[in-house]
Amino acid sequence: MRIIRTKDYKDLSRKTANILSAQVIIKPGCVLGLATGSSPLGTYEQLVEWYNKGDIDFSQVTSINLDEYRGLTHDHEQSYWYFMQKHFFSRINIRPDHVHVPDGANPNAEEACREYDRIIEEAGGIDCQLLGIGLDGHIGFNEPADAFQMGTHCVRLTQSTIEANKRFFSSADEVPREAYTMGIRNIMQARKVLLIASGEGKAAILKQAFFGPVTPRVPASILQIHQDFTLIADEAALSEIDAMK
Ligand code: GLP
User: Fold this and answer.
1) Residue span of the structural domain in which 23 resides
2) Residue 64 maps to which CATH number?
3) Are 192 and 4 in contact (CB under 8 A)?
4) Does 133 contact ligand 1 (Cβ within 6 A)?
């Protein structure tokens, strides 16, 4: 595990975008595993800026997003599909048929999840996976559990996640209770994994996830044993880790 320390969120976004753009330049037809949430917004913004300058070309890139709320259609403003289009895909030259997000509109969970595993496999796996981290240690929507879930699956969101994500909806009642998410195997099979975290609010969970035991109770902790895992975090997010030294 490697840690890249950044001064603040802006610095974090630029460094993360740098790694992703290096990936695209080295392998123009790469598969990027992408994430939603507020953490990657600055990274997408930076990549769009470099795209506009002509520095990056996404025309051969495939993207595979981590997760989607079950029951939300593409046109729902809080669907992760909509989020990705708005903040990233509609602003770069990625081919629409190269963009993948689990199909939240498919009520058949088994079918939606198997289909997504097939998409990941047919793409040849993920070259670089970008992750945020939930306050309970979730990655994608892999919530704390008794065991690691392997492939794409349907999850019931925890109260902590519903509370954290309600800021995007008109009320907590509006937050979907379930989601489809890539599983831990899908994430661990990515050739490179980046997890980004910013702000004091993430300090306690970062310490628990990366300096505590590997356990499905803190799903992100499994990344400690990934062979190419980089944590990119700003000083505020690293404050509890720093305090250990
Ligand atoms: C959501 C997403 C995760 C994300 C997490 C943290 O629940 N499913 O992929 O990492 O929130 O979000 P934020 O970056 O806004 O803190």
Assistant:
1) 7-223+237-242
2) 3.40.50.1360
3) no
4) yes
Query: Rg of the chain's alpha carbons, rounded to an integer?
Result: 17
Number of domains in the chain: 1
**Annotated active-site residue in 68, 127, 136, 234:** 136
Q: What is the pLDDT of residues 65-87, one digit of tens each?
A: 999 999 999 889 999 999 999 99
Helix axes 80-87, 41-52, angle to 10 degrees: 40
Q: Is 128 contained in some domain?
A: yes
Distinct helix (H) and strand (E) counts, the chain: 8, 10
pTM greater than the 0.90 cutoff = yes
Other CB atoms within a 10 A radius of the CB of residue 58 amount to: 22
Query: How much is the pLDDT for 105?
Result: 96
Residue 1 lies in a domain: no
Q: Is residue 78 part of a domain?
A: yes
CA of 42 to the centre of ligand 1 (A): 14
